[in-house]
Design goal:
Length: about 290
């Protein structure tokens, strides 16, 4: 009887060791994205907005909204920047994680190593999303531009949060709609003009994500994507956004003025507070999977 028990124990140990070895191999043969723990804040008044620093950011998802038209003008700009900054930084951090994920897969391909099923699915979805089969081009399209440029365009297009389409449709960047299948709102700038449509979004985060995707896929921004890949600063990149706005020359001048006047470039090196970042360890992977 004891002999049978010992054999069962030995077999169990061997099976567990095999199981553990397989799990460890899976862990080290795949890319594990970093998770961002986002703090939820109910926005009932202006002082509910968390004031951020220019070095580390507390990732926040604001529930509810305030009307920036009625916020004191002496504080409106700072409050609006702090309100939209988390959505922009969180989106950029996730894009950079996707970028590093593609780099990881490309390196394994170049080294003729196997790619996990999860990584294969991820790569396939990225190729569809960014409309390219080239890994080199994919990295260029995912790679995001500086925070200061996104902030500047959000400020200009939403009128510091006072525009109707931002207040009622979360459209932070004045993105137009050309399909009846979009969630959108009709506008008419001047009586007698043709009706035009602007996209509407369920959340501000959704608006930011679509904005980055738009400039990463539309052919009009090909030169812009090349220049941001080369590491150009926000004020240099503005000249390659001529197709973003009808009054391109005035637009670039206004944008450069906003960047300088509000010192927005100080946010270009901002990172998520380490307390809100989580990377899968081997232990957490084994416990979860």
């Amino acid at each position: 009887m004891l002999k049978v028990i010992r054999q069962v124990i030995y077999v169990s140990i061997i099976l567990f060791a095999l199981y553990l070895a397989i799990k460890v191999k899976i862990y080290y043969s795949g890319y594990w994205p970093e998770e961002i723990r986002i703090k939820s804040v109910s926005l009932t008044r202006a002082d509910s907005i968390i004031l951020q620093t220019d070095s580390t950011l507390i990732p926040v998802n604001y529930k509810g909204c305030i009307d920036f038209r009625y916020v004191d003008q002496d504080h409106r700009k700072d409050l609006f920047i702090n309100y939209i900054l988390p959505a922009i930084v969180i989106t950029r951090e996730r894009l950079m994680d996707d970028f590093h994920h593609v780099e990881y897969i490309e390196e394994r391909i170049n080294q003729r190593k196997s790619i996990s099923g999860i990584d294969s699915l991820f790569l396939a979805s990225m190729k569809v999303k960014y409309e390219t089969d080239s890994l080199v081009e994919l990295r260029k399209r995912i790679y995001p531009h500086p925070v200061s440029l996104a902030l500047t365009q959000a400020i200009l297009e939403s009128g510091w949060g006072t525009s109707n389409i931002f207040r009622n449709g979360n459209n932070l960047f004045g993105i137009m709609s050309f399909s009846s299948e979009d969630s959108r709102s009709v506008i008419q700038y001047t009586e007698g003009d043709e009706e035009q449509y602007l996209r509407t979004y369920n959340t501000m985060n959704e608006s930011v994500e679509h904005y980055f995707l738009l400039v990463s896929t539309v052919s009009s921004y090909k030169r812009f994507r090349q220049k941001r890949w080369e590491g150009r600063a926000s004020n240099q990149l503005l000249r390659y956004l001529s197709r973003y706005h009808d009054r391109s020359q005035q637009y670039a001048g206004m944008a450069q003025s906003i960047i300088a006047t509000n010192n927005l470039k100080k946010y270009d090196n901002i990172t998520i507070d380490a307390r809100y970042r989580q990377k899968y360890s081997l232990l957490s992977f084994l416990m979860k999977y």
